[in-house]
Design brief:
By secondary structure, this protein is α+β, with helices and mostly antiparallel strands. It is built from eleven helices and eight strands.
Length: 386
Amino acid sequence: MTGRIAFDPIHLPPKTKALRDEVRAFLAEEIAAGHFNPAGQGARGSYDREFSRRVGAKGWIGMTWPKAYGGHERTFFERYVVTEEMLVASAPTQGHFVADRQSGPILLRYADEEIKRDVVPRIARGDCGFCIGMSEPDSGSDLFAAKTRAEKTTDGWLVNGRKLWTSYAHRADYMIALLRTSPPTEENRRHGLSQFLVDLKTPGVTIRPVPFMTGEHEFNEVTFDDAALPENALLGEIDMAWKQATAELAYERSGPERFLETYQVLTHLIGALGAEPDLRGAEGLGRLVAQLNTLRRMSISVAGMLAAGKEPVLEASMVKDIGTNWEQLLPARARDLAAFVDPTESNSPGFQAVLNHATLIAPKLTIQGGTREILRGIIARGLGLR
């Protein structure tokens, strides 16, 4: 059976404008108070639990979740607006971003009642951070090749193996890990994977840094050496996590974070070119803005599908693939367009520093949410091309 890729034209509801204004006012107050610097090179990737708590107090974490679990029962489009404004401002959202985007929804759908009552409200308050345990050293983004095992014991599970490229594991409280509980079958290599909630303070869990070329620390290697998990750590059905993980990745791959991570390069480029750029600069800038607007419309369309209860796997993969490509090429395009601008006449004195930082972090954008090769394989398979 083959799929069809469709991005229905969806516009954000008019009522989201008031929310956007409220978020912008909040962020302006945060910046004025010195809580974060939007021009800081590492601001997009920074981790600030106190900031997350202030965001939680505003009701902007767990916005779409049930009120019974600390949520606010607002729409996917309202959450999209908050996410977009936080990214554009380079706000330090990493303390809650993963938990809000995908871990919370996974717990609400698959965790037992005790976990939902305990953990989910803490996420909504900004008190609890999550990381994602999917990629491994020998399998990368090929999730179905995962080898880290969870073996059943009399009172729980025993985990052994390694996860790699795990963002902010060193700061998170929990991981949702994709673990092998049975061997794959010849007919279905997806079989045998299960999802687990892992308390990262569990004995036997070791976290080692994988630093960037910039010196920043986001990625980690997480090793499990006879790490014992309780019985209720299993999320959903045993051996059937591939369905759950696929749905989870639709959240991870389709949001505005998939094309706004190097956004500061674009705003600084506009400043560098000035109010009256030459024809070459104006045309190049116009192309970049048009491409960004197209990506945004695709992303909003996927948000609409998620709001309707659909699982837009192919569309989300396309947003991530095209968005990553745009983000990675942006520094080179910006450098080329600004090549003939006299630095002394530039209206963006921080342009070069932002450009250099974006160039250095560009390679890691491929890893986040799945590599280009894996994504294109998913798209091709969904269209019946392989």
